[in-house]
Amino acid sequence: MNPYTVNIKLAARTLTGTLSLQNKAAVDWGWQGLIAQGCHSSILIIDPKTAQTIQVLERHKTNVVKVKWSRENYYHNLSSPYCLRLASGDASGKIIVWDVVSGTAHCEIQEHSKPIQDMEWLWNQDASHDLLLAVHPPNYIVLWNADTGAKLWKKSYAENILSFSFDPFDPSNLALLTSEGIVFITDFSHSKPPGSTGKKVYIASPHASPAHTKPAPAAAPAPTGAKKALNKVKVLITNEKPTAEAVTLNDCLQLSYLPSKRNHMLLLYPREILILDLELSQTVGVVAIERSGVPFIQVIPCAQRDALYCLHENGCITLRVCRSTSAPEEAADPEQNIQELVYDLRSQCDAIRVTKTVRPYRMVICPVNENKAALMVSDGRAMLWELKAHTGRAAANPSSGLSPLYSPVAFCGAPLGPNQKRIQDLSLNSMIGQSLIAGETAPQSSTQQEVQLKFLLTGLLSGLPLPPFAIRMCPPLTTKNINHYQPLLATGTSNGSVLVYNLTSGLLHKELSVHSCEVRGIEWVSLTSFLSFATSSPNNMGLVRNELQHVDLPTGRCFAFRGERGNDEPPIDMIKVSHLKQYLVVVFRDKPLELWDIRTGTLLREMAKSFPTVTALEWSPSHNLKSLKKKQLAAREAMARQTVSDAEQSNVESSVISLLQDAESKSETSQAISAREHFVFTDTDGQVYHITVEGNTVKDGARIPPDGSMGSIACIAWKGDTLVLGDVDGNLNFWDLKARLSRGIPTHHGWVKKIRFAPGKGNQKLLVMYPDGVEVWDTKEVQMVSSIRFGRNVNYRILDIDWCTSDKVVLASDDGCVRVLEMAMKSASYRMDEQDLTDAVWCPYLLLPRAALTLKAFLLLQPWSGTFTMDITQVDYTEKLEIKGLIQEQLNSLSNDLKSVLQDPELSLLQRCLLVSRLFGDESDLTFWTVASHYLQAFAQARQLSVSAAEGGEESQPAPQNHLDICQDVLCESSYFQKFQLDRVHLQEVKRSSYEHTKKCADQLLLLGQTDRAVQLLLETSADNPSYYCDSLKACLVTTITSSGPSQSTIKLVATNMIANGKLAEGVQLLCLIDKAADACRYLQTYGEWNRAAWLAKVRLSPAESSDVLKRWAEHLCSPQVNQKSKAILVLLSLGCFYRVGEMLHSMRYFDRAALFIEACLKYGVMEANDSSNKLIEASFLDYARLLRTLGLREGAALWASRAGGAGEQLMEELFQGEGGVPGALLGEDEVELGQESTE
Question: CA-CA to 369 of 20 to 30 Å: which in 255, 592, 1031, 1175?
Fold first, then answer.
């Protein structure tokens, strides 16, 4: 901000400080790109890119314990726009759903009065995105409609629920972490509460395992191998309640499903992270910390790669990436090969200095890109770390045994063009490639670059230190100082430093270390300098060290104002600066006051011992400066006249003026005139004294006897003709000096601590501070205007007060915050769009719904009439100028890298769609375009390879490097999915520790067609096991199955009977044995096991058969009772049913997505424009053109309409007649002509 623009209007705001312990878990980083953080009872909204606080939400009465941004997993249009919704829960059980932009509460929810334990928005069905699941202590889960505040259902459980985690792959699975163990719920649905009480699994502490009790020999490697994990798993998961001595304290800190692969869960303990495979409920990986290491406090698993962000107790964040299971170096030692999942430490950031009051609380990860982390520290700091990838080999360190990480060769889901610009650090999956799976061929290392990962600190937000505070606003804005005025607030802190905040932006202007002990008071002596005083704690005589410092802000120079004085004397009570900033009175507790000249820094008078004890003191606003100036002017004019000769008398006027100005400035500097000023003070008896100071003479004036109704006077304020006295009993006495009237009012609030008049001529408002609150009075009417009371309407005590403008007050409170409030002293939330931010923030969610969609279309439809542009004014766009301006501000706030990529002609349509959905944090768009772009390219590639195979509808395998990430689960290519499942069964096999596990492994192997291995496992059953006979027979059956007709039909008959009698799994196994997996899938689907059927189809069936099974699944997903059309679309994409996808998108009214998708299909040649498809193509292009017209983008509308056949021509005519779509009033005649030129 250049120093010459003055924003006189200050926004109401809150400067926050340290966090309370209950705020520990109250932080969330949303898809919208912002961080929400609870601070006492307020919520800060932080923009991590520019490290600014852009909003503070205040409405909670108790500490905020949880915050959650709503998910963006839905299609955005005008009726469900991009908007900032946040849910926050507090310690009294209230949940508030906020509209963050306007700072208002959308709805409030209350069930019980205990702190909310956990909450999460449901993101998985297309019907409603307003559902919020919350844990109300001790043991209820309640599903709320967060739009209306209605309770949908409530269910109680037997144990206390600490937190929960949804299965990201299957929304009907929910795991609750309770005080005794884990409860798995498999029938979660938004329409009714779960029917069962769930499956209970008890956890015994892993420390009961022997690996911890015996000391490890020095030479042996750290015990992270399989043996330790086996020991652990025996005590870890049991379905029976463990005996009392087996259970030590359940110190499981956290449970989360892994979003990167299905059916895996993570349990966090202070010294290890366990990865469980839920199909076997058993540990398949351990990340352990050695003895000297720093314990974990939190871990966040990533979705894009199998990686973990871990937060340690010293504030260090580490990134661990899962090792590829097919690393060639390990094959030499068969013992070591695939023993367990290993997470290698790939990067770590610096730790913080941990003290009693400074501890790391929580970290959050950017959910869109997963390459940025923010650490919240208990002292109110937010540290923003970014993960950067550096190409180049690591320093050779063979002992670490880490295989290198490679960067992917693609950008935004497509291979890089030769001169294409890219942003390597765009997201985690564009920084490191996929980890390999056993049986996969490693790509040629020639094309791939090795990368190293490093954390970089890109932002730091710090809060106020611990209270108490002394605050003072700089002198008010006047017509004289308007050109260089800055609204600065000085805040003195308990450690002796003074923080100066600029209230326009709310940012720290300077932090000055001035004193060695607690600052007691601050007084400004000009716009850029102030005096502050501090007193040390008293010695046994009751004497202290007083420090009175003069601070010059621009230079930061401090000097001791009282020179050598200050040691071993009674403490300073207050300092008061006169109105013209000439004199300073220093009042001591048990010592007469001192009078100083501020301009020269000299002591004018130290009062005699007999001087009365001062209880309150105030300078008078009246002085004789004007009359003195007049006298001086007259004298100077006379001087000037003498110097000008008589001859030039005529043209003297102008020169006299310049001479006068000259003389004026000289005299100002050399011999400043000393105006006469007065102050009044009261003594312990309540007598009012009046004292006049002029130059270095001090005269005693009149004395006014005490008013009988008042107690001991505590403070005085004087403005114009009004003098107000406040006493220790809560009485206010208003004196009208002109009319010589006094009026006393008892407020009954106890001691009047401070009273201050508001700045501004004729503004007679008065701010009064009591021990239990603050009031604003109008002294003209002698009545109270507004008030804040501790315990009644706020839950914090006020420590200090001041006016910051003529209509806003600033209050320091004991929750560590400084609040700027309107005179009515309501909440400090404000509209974000009225904010004056120092750095522009990229967040389309701050725009009006229409403008956000326009911005998206503007970025998607580049180039505009042939040119790539980042200037919205170059486009034919009919809209109010201010909205255009706001959109342009958003465009300007993008980084130069992003702008250059968005304007790169090499960027394909698919890559552009992916990049824009990343920029908008649009979860639903991102998933759709990731899958769409992958399969469009795969099918286009297959088509080129063999046109004949494409006619038969076969899916030929694309290049091995390029497969979808496994986090897409059943949407991956069958061949890759199969390899992954085999890999997983091998791991389960190594890890099995009981007959149950072995049985499950054998079943999986049979389904996967690995009969030989399955037979070996079946024969392991010991003779004393009741299933010994059964398993032996099964082994014989598996080995002797031949494809002869009779045996096949017998087995099929047996299998169908089994299924009919409720033995579904066993029947399906038999069918798989005789290669009737397609029938097996059909049975599974009939019995509602849709996910299992899809899994089996992927691992066992030929592409054509598997495609039939998955198509049936997609139809099921579209049915009204399931209503997961968006998932059905992804399934159809993976099958290459592109025409069907286009139809569905269009019928669901996803107009922009449909049009851009069909356009991409035509570009890649996987859809032909023929008679059958033209109807769909034209309809969707026409609807997109209409959508663009409603957004005001006429040029874009014309472009798409021109490709939409006959109906499109009609729309073109409407567009450029100014009839219909755009009201004629909006378009001037010249604009219409311009529009026509641009389309021709």
Answer: 255
Three-class SS of 968-1016? HHHHCCHHHHHHHHHHHHHHHHHHCCCHHHHHHHHHHHHHHCCHHHHHH
Please report which confidence band the pLDDT of residue 232 belongs to, taking 50, 70 and 90 as the band edges. very low
Q: Are 1074 and 1098 in contact (CB under 8 A)?
A: no
CA distance 843 to 833: 11
Amino acid code (one letter) for 1084 = L
**DSSP assignment, residue 21?**
G
Q: Which residues pair with 283 in a beta bridge?
A: 276
For position 1203, what pLDDT does the model report? 86
Contact 425, 431 (CB under 8 A): yes
- Angle formed by the axes of helices 995-1008 and 1011-1018, to 10°? 160
Q: Please report how the helices 1229-1239 and 1205-1217 are oriented relative to each other, as an axis angle in degrees rounded to 10.
A: 150
Pairing relation of β-strands 773-778 and 765-770?
Answer: antiparallel
Q: 346-398, pLDDT tens digit by residue?
A: 999 999 999 988 999 999 999 999 999 999 999 999 999 999 988 876 555 54
> Scanning the structure block, which residue is given the tokens 């059927």?
1093
Where is 938: in which H helix or E strand? helix 923-945
Q: Please report which residue ranges of 768-880 form alpha helices under DSSP H.
A: 849-860
Residue 944's SS3 state is helix
Walk across the sheet containing 343-348 and list its strands: 296-301, 307-312, 317-322, 343-348
- Give the separation between CA 357 and CA 381, rounded to whole angstroms: 12
| Residue whose C-alpha is closest to residue 407's, from 371, 440, 438 | 371
434 contacts 953 by C-beta, under 8 angstroms = no
- Burial tier of 626 (Cβ tally within 10 Å: 0-12, 13-18, 19+): exposed
C-alpha 276: how far from chain center: 29
Q: Which residues lie across from 382 on neighbouring strands?
A: 376, 461
Q: Where are the alpha helices (DSSP H) in 1063-1124?
A: 1064-1073, 1077-1086, 1090-1100, 1103-1118
Burial class of residue 1055 in the structure, from the number of CB atoms within 10 Å of its CB (0-12 exposed, 13-18 middle, 19+ buried):
buried
Q: Helices 974-991 and 226-236 meet at what angle, rounded to 10?
A: 80
Q: Summarize pLDDT for 472-502 with one digit per residue, the tens.
A: 999 998 888 888 888 999 999 999 999 999 9
Side chain identity, residue 1124: Q
Q: What is the mean pLDDT of residues 144-160?
A: 92
Judged by DSSP in three states, 899 sits in: helix
Question: How far, in Å, CA of 26 to CA of 387, rounded?
Answer: 24
Tell me which amino acid residue 580 is.
L
Tell the burial category of 1077 from Cβ atoms under 10 Å away from its Cβ (0-12, 13-18, 19+).
Answer: buried
Instruction: Look up tokens 């890298």; give the residue.
Output: 897
Beta strands 754-757; 818-822: pairing state: unpaired
What is the C-alpha separation between 374 and 384, in angstroms, rounded? 4
% of the chain exceeding 90 in pLDDT: 44
Q: Which amino acid is at 744?
A: G
pLDDT, position 331? 39
Strand arrangement of the beta sheet that strand 557-560 belongs to: 519-524, 529-535, 546-552, 557-560
Assess contact for 592 and 609: CB atoms under 8 A.
yes
Q: pTM for the full model?
A: 0.86
**Does 211 score more than 60 pLDDT?**
no
At 821, give phi and psi (nearest 5°). Answer: -125, 155
Q: Which amino acid, one-letter code, is at 417?
A: G
Q: Which residues of 638-671 are buried (b: 16+ CB within 10 A; e: fewer)?
A: eebeeeeeeeeeeeeeeebeebeeebeeeeeeee
Dist. CA 522–CA 472, nearest whole Å: 6
CA distance 424 to 391: 10
